[in-house]
Amino acid sequence: MDPTEKNWISKYLDERSKFALDLPPNKSLSTSELIYKVLQPTGILYGHPLSLPIPIDTTPWPLKERLEVILLESFISSYLIYHKINKPSNTDLKEAINKSIEFYTQSFPELLKRGFLEMPAKTPELQLEKIISKRILVKPEWNAHFWRGFFHNILLFVDILTFIEFMEAKENIAEINWQKRILEFQYYIINLLAVITTLNSDKKESVNLYNYFVSSTNFSKKEKEDFQNNYRQPEIQKVIQFLRHSSWLVRKYFLELGLLSIWADNTIDTDEQAFIEHFESKLQLESIEIETSSFAVESYVFLNWEKVHYLQSKQSLLVLSKRMTHRMKKISHKYAHEIKTEINENKELISLLRTSQKRPLSIDEREKVRQQLIDVLKTIPAFVVLAMPMAFLSVPILMKVLPKNIFPSSFNPNKIVNQRGNKIIEG
Asked: Containing domain of residue 413, as a range?
């Protein structure tokens, strides 16, 4: 499948039908949590979609085409999760395509208009190709400027959030102004990011960024001019009030946008730290949600350090690894009882841990310990929805982040850590 060629969606659906969604067995997860679990690792929440949630490699594709495919898959995955379909049939995938077209017909009817000499699309797949191509804009200069690329492309996930609401609205769909709903999302994103840019910028730079934010939205020309001519420092209270009546997924999205935006410069200074703490406290999310969102953003940065241009010159990987270690430690201690229960039920893991106290484990045995401890973590609610960077989770790191009291009473973690000359990375 080549997304640069015509009729790529039909070919993608042929490939897509071979794969099921990688959903956790935890039955208590909500639809929002499952959508987050599948889409967060793709990067579409953060304006930098890099990979698909299914095993199809996107790296050979040009940036615009990669964005198009990941946006398409975000619609498909959201549709399948909402309708509780894990392994889709061709019919299921076609229904997802039709629902996506219906959504854009209601929210952006201008995307369906044909040019003067443009022939009508013969199939729904070709129609959606044209819609998505018009929806995504990529400019080469965005690679040189964090906000240029970041802000424009974060608006793509607003389409997904609104599409979820579109599916939930079983009645009177045509009576709801879906374009107005998208503009509402965009308005509050502008407010959030404009507040963040003023924390460590001079007035002139702040105004320039605010004007760029406004120009990237779908507001009318007159509305954009009104925003730009009447610039004033946005009030975070407006954003908080909006989020208090929003879904869990919307609140997580805004929180993680704020967290990633703080990463736009090298350090987190006092004002930025105070802002994010204030913002977190007002979102009506549990404290553990704040930790998991922070870990999610840091994991995304860690996993994609070499793929995203603006990340490459930022905080060192050592500093980032310390932050992630500290974050995982806090989450693990919160769920110490659940982790201990899972470990005690894993007879092979217990046997290997006890063996490690008597003799050095082989390379294969240490890998089994590592993998099984990761599998234990994946059963914990706070970790279920996270895409954990597996290469980061070495045995020394796991021994560092897991509470000591979850292991057998005679277990000494230093023995398994130091068997091959490894040391725990301090966090």
From this structure: 328-418
pLDDT of residue 11: 94
**Residue 316 belongs to some domain of the structure:** no
Which residues of 55-170 form beta strands (DSSP E)? none
**pLDDT of the residue at 223:** 85
Q: Residue 149 and residue 46: Cα distance in Å, rounded? A: 10
- Cα within 13 Å of Cα(294), Cβ side: 24
User: Which of 259, 55, 285, 253 has its CA nearest to residue 160?
Assistant: 253
Q: What angle do CA 102, 6, 159 make, to 5 degrees?
A: 35
- Whole-number pLDDT of residue 205: 72
Category of 396 on φ-ψ map: left (φ > 0), alpha (ψ -120 to 50) or beta: alpha
Closest CA to 37 of 387, 389, 399: 387
Domain C-terminal end among 220, 255, 284: 284
Nearest to 368 by CA among 392, 354, 348: 348
Q: Indicate whether 339 belongs to any domain.
A: yes
The reported pLDDT for the residue numbered 333 is: 92
Give the contacts of 38 (CB within 8 A, at least 6 positions apart).
Answer: 21, 22, 23, 53, 77, 81
3-class state of residue 159 by DSSP: helix
Distance (Å, whole) CA 191 – CA 31: 28
Question: What are the distances in angstroms from CA 43 to CA 192, 194, 257, 301, 317?
Answer: 19, 21, 11, 10, 19
Residues 194 and 266 in one domain: yes
Walk along the chain (427 residues) in steps of 10 and give the mean pLDDT of each run: 90 92 78 93 88 90 90 96 93 96 92 75 91 84 66 86 92 82 90 79 72 82 81 77 92 90 66 81 83 87 69 63 88 92 91 88 91 90 83 88 86 76 40
